[in-house]
Give the backbone structure.
Amino acid sequence: MTRLKRLSARQILRILHGFGFSVESVRGSHAKLKRKAEGGPPQILTVPLHRELAPGTIQAIYRQALRFVPEADLRAHFYGKD
């Protein structure tokens, strides 16, 4: 079974940028990422801007992103060897 990778906010932002998300705003220590979907409402994710993110936080971001990105594309970025 593969393990959840330990990722920083910078790494997660880079991953999500690859899927078309861009930082719309930063308020305090959280970034709001947005992606416009064709014919649908904008897709919004929130990522805390910390050097180290807790595994539960990384898992929550992964689950949020699954609403917009297919699991087959996203899983390799969040799971695997550390």
About this structure: Residues 38 and 68 are 12 Å apart (CA to CA). The helical segments are 9-18, 55-66, 71-78. The chain has a mean pLDDT of 94.
